[in-house]
Amino acid sequence: MKYNIVTIEREYASGGREIGYRTAEKLGIPYYGKEILEMAAKKKGVSPEYLEELEETPTNSFFYSVYMLSKNLIGDTPSLPENDALRLAEAEIINDLAAEGPCVIIGRCACHALRRRKDVLNVFIHSSWEARVKRAVETYGVDAANAEVVLKKFDKRRACYYNANTGKKWSAPEGYHMILDSGRLGIGKCVDILEKAVE
After folding, report:
1. Among 136, 146, 178, 189, which one is most buried in terms of CB atoms within 10 A?
2. Are 171 and 16 within 8 A, CB to CB?
3. Domain that holds residue 17
4. Cβ atoms within 10 Å, residue 196
5. How far apart are the first and last CA of the chain?
6. CATH at residue 79
């Protein structure tokens, strides 16, 4: 494959998780999403639920960058705040998984964690508001009356987490190699496009 790793960031209810899973299945490679959070929780000796709550606390991206640089240069470093330690644990796990071989990784700022690799295809999945509301209600069981609130909540959470941890804007096109409209193309077509893109 031209690209060994596919990272996917996505709007809530755009079908990004399904696209990632089906792409990995077609390529015969591992798929990682919440599994990374579970691995990080195990590594830190806490529950995945606790780490999910911690994710909502923005990390200090400048401090995190300085920490990573000093870690590479001198090895021993001061202790990090919990949310920064979580981000570091996730980044290390993501790099370890990528080192093991081809895979598809959903979310968790994987595109940033793997930014020094040349064999990574970074993808952003989005869709129209109407298509996302429909999917949220029909697929995720979100109450139609609350769909707008739910979509905005999850999009804001993902954007804040990404922006804080990378210093970049979550939905900015320059952060990705490919942007796909799943509402216009359909889930299957997005999978086909990604399958061909990595060959």
Report:
1. 136
2. no
3. 5-197
4. 8
5. 4
6. 3.40.50.300
Residue identified by tokens 């997005």 is: 190
Return the pLDDT at 68. 47
Q: Could you report the per-residue pLDDT of 118-161, keeping only the tens digit for each?
A: 999 999 999 999 999 999 999 999 999 999 999 999 999 999 98
Q: Is the pTM of this model over 0.70?
A: yes
* Tokens linked to 7: 């990272």
Q: Say which residue the tokens 């596919």 belong to.
A: 6
Question: Is the pLDDT assigned to residue 76 strictly greater than 70?
Answer: no
C-alpha 186: how far from chain center: 20
Q: Say which residues have a Cβ less than 8 Å from residue 186's Cβ, sequence separation at least 6.
A: none
Bridge-partner residues for 178, per DSSP?
A: 123
Contacts of 159 (CB under 8 A, 6+ apart): 169, 170, 171
Count structural domains, the chain. Answer: 1
Which residues have C-beta within 8 Å of that of residue 57, sequence separation ≥ 6? Answer: 82, 83
CA–CA gap between residue 38 and residue 3 (Å, rounded): 26
Distance, in Å, from the CA atom of 48 to the CA atom of 45, rounded to the nearest integer, reads 9
